[in-house]
Amino acid sequence: MPSSTTGTPPTSRSTRSSPVPARRADAAFPLALGGVALALVAAVCVAFSVGVYPVSPGELAAVLWAKTTGGALAVPKAVETVIWDIRGPRVLAAMLVGAGLAASGAAYQGLFRNPLVSPDILGVSSGAALGAVLGIFASLPVLAIQALAFVGGLLAVSVVYGVAATIRGRDPVLVLILGGVVIGALLGSGVALLKYLADPYNQLPAITFWLLGSLSAVNRADLLALLPPVAVALVPLVLLRWRLDVMTLGDEEATSLGVSVRATRAVVVAAATLMTAAAVSVSGIVGWVGLLVPHLARLMVGPAFARLLPTSVLLGAAYLLAVDTLARSLGRVELPLGVLTAVIGTPVFLWLLAFGRRGWS
Question: How far apart are CA 216 and CA 86, in angstroms?
């Protein structure tokens, strides 16, 4: 019987063999989700408070209330400018990028049944990087650079999927992953070539800055380009949450349970790629979020995708917002996001490797 996207979730091997841990995870899910939501609210308050011009939670609430209701502002105009034009877009962008990368990582890891898979496994980050570097090399405006990064990420995954579709008689998951690694390496060599040919005084610094990842130049227009793809891509992941649990059992068993493996994999890859490409086009290359956050979420609520997806979304938003706040407040010079996420993510991931294995059971 085909599994339903909205009905009772299918029973997997893990839940049949150990129903008690599954019931405990179900009972702990509301508490874990509430804790992550509170952490996100705290990260938002800290992000607005930290900076050259500090903003208190009361001032933030007053500005949001005035904007929502159309009432008179009870704070100075400078506070409104800091919240609405400077810090607000950056905070929202960090939350959207973190949520999108974390959701993509959770989807990819479950779909490919591999805890080491990250959102750039199919070459989306390499394609987006090549598109952005081409835009910078051609001295295009910022919006054109972001558009090229977005299109480059989507085209890279399309090429990977096309290569995998032409190779028959092999494990489709293995072919897809290896194809992504090979195409990503090829695109990376293209980025290296353009860096070699770029003007060392103007273009090369801009290329290097973009590849390291940053949200310092984000504005409200960037949010309009980021929010719709992330929101649209989350819809199929929510609707296919039970089918993704069945996909973790393997292609043959998923097919025997009525799941269209090829169609489900194509929809999930397209949705995760759309989110990743949109995030990378705005923030540049920000690693470790899509790899680390799903592991943390899985340790908190278990591997069931219906619980894992919302937890990963909120935890990814809180995590990247906290990292971005550290990046702009640790020193006089803002640190690149890609560097800081690697510095923080490496020891945490090593700790998860040692103590977090039960999250996959």
Answer: 9
